[in-house]
Amino acid sequence: MTELDAVLAFGVALVVSAAVTPLAARLAFGVGAVDRPRERGLATRETPRLGGLAIFAAVLIAAALGLIADAKMRAVLGGGALIVLVGAIDDARSGGLPPGTKLVGQIAAALIPVLAGVVVASIRLPFIGVVNFGDAGGPLTVLGLVAVMNVVNFSDGVDGLAAGVCAISAVSLSIIAFDFANDATGALARNQHARAAVLAALTAGAALGFLIHNFHPASVFMGDSGSNLLGLLLGCVAVEGEVKTASVVALLFPLVILAVPFLDTSFVLAKRIKYKRPVYSADRNHFHHRLANIGFSQRRTVLYLYGWTVALAGLALALRFLPWSDHHGHFSVAWMVVLGLFALAVLALSVYLVVVLEILKFRLARTPQLRRAHPDTSEHEIAEQVARELETGEMDALGPDAGERDGISDAPPDGRPGDAVADSDYAGPSPAPHP
C-alpha cells in the first residue's frame, strides 16, 4: 500500500463519516441514546450520543479499499466492532454500564487484535538495547491498548476535543509509519508499516468527518462507542506502525503525539488517588475544565488544546525526520541543537498552558474576586482558598467567556460513573477539604 492509498482512504472515511453521522444521530433518538436537558445536566438541548457508529461505518468502508484483505487488520476491525457494540450499549442504556463491565469489554476488544499478532514482543531502549517481553508481550499489549482507549475516553469532555486530537494524532502516526515502511527491509515489514499507516489515515478521516457535526455547538456526541473505538485504532496503529520497529526512539512517537490526553489522564488519576476517590469518579481536574475555569469558551479551550497537540506532533515528526542521528550511535551536533531548541519551544508552550494560563491567571483574577465578595477575610485565608480551588479544581469560571461553559464535561456527557460529570453538575464554589 502507498501514500496514495492512504490519501484515498482518508478521503473516503471523511466523506462517509460526515454523511452517516446524521443517520447515527437519528438512530440514537430512536433508541433513546440521548443526552436530555435537565436541571444539573450538560446539554441545553437533546443531543444524540451514538456518533461512534458513524465513525466505525466510515472506518469499515474505507478499510474495504484494501486493508480488509490483511488478517491482522481484520482482527483490528473485529476488535473495533466489539468495542463499538459495548460502547453503544453503554450510550443507550439509562445509567450506562457498570465500570467493571466496560473494562471487561475493553479487554475483550483488545484481545482480538493481540491474538492475531498485533503484539509488542520487544522494544529497544537507549543505553539498554533490546528488551524482550517473551510471553508477557501479549498481556502487556492488551494493557497498553486498554490504556489508550481509556485515555481517549477521558479526553472526550468538550465538543470536538477527542475527535480533533485523535485526527491530529492519526495523521502524525500515519506519516511516521510510512517513513518506517520506506526504510524497512523485506516486503513483510514494509507491508506491516504501510497497512498501519493507511489505517491511521482512514482513522483521521473518520474522526474529521465526525468533527464536522461535533465541533461546538455539537449536534451529536461520539459517546463511549466512538472514544473507545478511536483509542483502540490509535493503539493498534502505534503497535504495528511504530513500536514494533528496531528504532531506539520508536516508543517515544506515540507517547509524544498522544501526550496531551496521556498527561490529562495521569493528572486526573493522580488527583483522585491522592484524595482517595475511585478512579472512575467524577471531578473537574481535566485540562479542559481548568482552561474553562479561567474563562475560556469551549472553542478557545479546544483550539488551545489542538495547538498543543500539533506542537507535540511536530516534535515527534522532528525526532523522526531531522538528521540528528544516523541510528548507529553517531550524532550531528548542529541538528541536535535544532532538535533541542524545538523541544524547548514545545516545553515552553506546555508550561505556558499548564502554569501561566491556568495557575497564574486564575490566581491573579480569583484573589480580587474573593476579596470583593468577602472583604472581612484575611489575605492569608484568601490565599488558602485560591490554593484549595487550584488543587481540587472546585472553582467558578472567570471572565466573559464563562457563559459558554455548558458542554464541558469529563467524558461522555451524561455524568455517569466511570465517565465523569458535566461542568454544570458542580453546584458552585465551596471550600475544599484539606488533604
3D structure, described in words:
The protein is mainly α and 435 residues long. It has two domains: 3-250, no CATH class; 259-409, no CATH class. It is 64% helix and 3% strand. It has 14 helices and four strands. The chain has helices spanning 3-31, 51-63, 71-92, 99-115, 137-155, 161-183, 187-214, 223-243, 252-257, 259-274, 287-293, 298-321, 333-373, 379-392; strands at 34-35, 47-48, 122-125, 129-132. The strands form two sheets. It has a two-stranded antiparallel ribbon.
Overall form: globular
Average pLDDT rating: 82
Helix and strand string, N-terminal first?
A: HEEHHHEEHHHHHHHHHH
Number of strands: 4
As a whole number of angstroms, the C-alpha radius of gyration is: 22 Å
Note the gap between the termini. 55 Å
The biggest sheet, with number of strands, parallel, antiparallel or mixed sense and barrel status, is: 2 strands, antiparallel
List keywords for this structure.
435 residues, mainly alpha, 2 domains, 14 helices, 4 strands, 3% strand, globular, disordered C terminus
Topology readout:
Elements: H1 3-31, E1 34-35, E2 47-48, H2 51-63, H3 71-92, H4 99-115, E3 122-125, E4 129-132, H5 137-155, H6 161-183, H7 187-214, H8 223-243, H9 252-257, H10 259-274, H11 287-293, H12 298-321, H13 333-373, H14 379-392
Helix pairs in contact: 1-2, 1-7, 2-3, 2-7, 2-8, 3-4, 3-8, 4-5, 5-8, 5-10, 6-7, 6-8, 6-12, 7-8, 11-12, 11-13, 12-13, 13-14
